[in-house]
Model the fold of this input.
Amino acid sequence: MSRAAGTAGTAGTIRVGTRASALAMAQTTQVAERIAKAAKAQVELVPVTTEGDTSRASLASLGGTGVFAAALREALLRGECDVVVHSLKDLPTAEHPGLRLGAVPKRADARDALCARDGLTLATLPEGARIGTGSPRRIAQLRAARPDVTPVDIRGNVDTRLAKVESGELDAVLLAAAGLGRLGRADAATELLSLDEWPTAAGQGALAIEVRRERGDRALERALESIDHGTSRATALAERLVLAGLEAGCAAPVGVTAFVDDELLFLSANVYSADGTRRLTSSHAATPDSRSAADLADAARDVADRVVAELLGNGAAELAPPEESR
Done:
């Protein structure tokens, strides 16, 4: 498998677009190897620089939604690559008219990880501890759980953030457990936060493989079908439909968790005020008629509709106003 800075692949080569960060390259390499094996083809990585990679502004000020996805989508539409790999939590909930979701591989750990000095946990961090995160959702959750600590807005890749703890600049950082695992840094976590008490971003831990809407090479289509994981796609769909129904972007203070257990698809969502002093919660379940992709998707839509209706009825729009109004 090769890495290309240019725009054209050799004949029969599948070009996979990715952000150029260490985490994006690591997770895209894993996906690309599976595509190569299933399609029996050569695969070439095409690094793409996005607005989220070049700007040092906070994700909240950039608007959150799409800052990592837009450039990848443009490269795909221009024909510079055949597929692109996103972290699903970074993908806008609205469908792009020229693109479709080709596959969602099996989801990794959806939890947040606390990476603290001296093996500390969220409960044992001292009063006034400085905890780094660029996520409004994590900041709201921190303020709710530990109003005596100080959230610090940070940017940068995983190693940069962990280095701030190692240097003593910060007491801890909050990161996605999945990202740590994909980089081989899972041992940096001093605590994995329970999804029951600390729900995470819609689609966290899942990857999205996006392709152009028109059907392309049959070998590639078969490869995408082989790595698509129906349960992961359905649970991510349910979570993302909550964001869409609330008209909230991926940077909104919303934590949402879906999972399939036995014959039920469960969905729980929490909407926080920015200061963490208020929270609305809704939980519902649906029973898919079968484990087929279509029936799982129908169940995801059903349960998401009920969760959204309850949250909006209880005033969620006041806590997480529609994205265009922020």
Remarks:
- Confidence is low (pLDDT under 50) at residues 4-10, 58-64.
- The chain has eleven helices and 14 strands.
- Residues 180 and 186 are 5 Å apart (CA to CA).
- The longest strand covers residues 264-272.
